[in-house]
């Protein structure tokens, strides 16, 4: 945290896109690059994060700013292919593909809550996913991975950073794609990703404050990542709709 050092936040259009101004200073990334984002809507959302800070700047609450910094600085120096393969690798350990056999009540809950989403993904992408109670997880066909690689390739580098961020929060490629495709809400996606934990809480109770804080934090990060993906895909979506009309 650091003390808030600016009064006003505004956006302006530069050569490379939209910039954020803190009073008369242009925002920079951690690597001192000019903070420039590809869409006006994303710039407004980031400016809102900075404007909503009070006496101190709480960087850990500014998920959109963090995602933009990651996209601009690319600290891990990965290219588009590496980002896509990292996202698809989550299929091998996807939360909703791992099932328990005991206790029966939890096994039933997983079946009832997770099976419909696996079924949706299989139909939506025309793939085979399945589930398994083995510690090794399900055997995902190579053709399924290739389909997801091809699908993710349709996103730009910025959106892919957001997709990977959402996948990391939910520990699930399937839940993330359901969320980004607007098939499920943020609340539903988070609940499904924490199904076993929620089951245990229903049974044994929760640690006061801790559970609610974790839940709100996960929702905030997941929502920010999803919004980031949509805002980074916005311009191409608008053109596409105009062409359809």
Write the layout of secondary structure elements.
Blueprint: E1 2-3, E2 9-13, E3 18-22, E4 25-26, E5 36-37, H1 40-51, E6 56-57, H2 63-73, H3 80-89, H4 104-125, H5 142-152, H6 157-170, H7 173-180, H8 186-193, H9 195-204, H10 210-232, H11 234-244
Antiparallel strand pairs: 1-6, 2-3, 3-4, 3-5
Helix pairs in contact: 2-6, 3-5, 3-6, 4-7, 6-7, 6-10, 7-8
How would you describe this structure to a colleague?
The protein has 245 residues and is α+β, with helices and mostly antiparallel strands. The chain folds into 2 domains: 2-73, ATP12-like (2-Layer Sandwich), CATH 3.30.2180.10; 80-233, ATP12-like fold (Orthogonal Bundle), CATH 1.10.3580.10. 57% of the residues lie in helices and 7% in strands. It has helices at residues 40-51, 63-73, 80-89, 104-125, 142-152, 157-170, 173-180, 186-193, 195-204, 210-232, 234-244, and strands at residues 2-3, 9-13, 18-22, 25-26, 36-37, 56-57. Strands 2, 3, 4 and 5 form a 4-stranded antiparallel β-sheet that branches. It has a two-stranded antiparallel sheet with strand order 1-6. Helix 2 (63-73) crosses helix 6 and helix 6 (157-170) runs antiparallel to helix 10. The chain is globular and about 60 Å long.
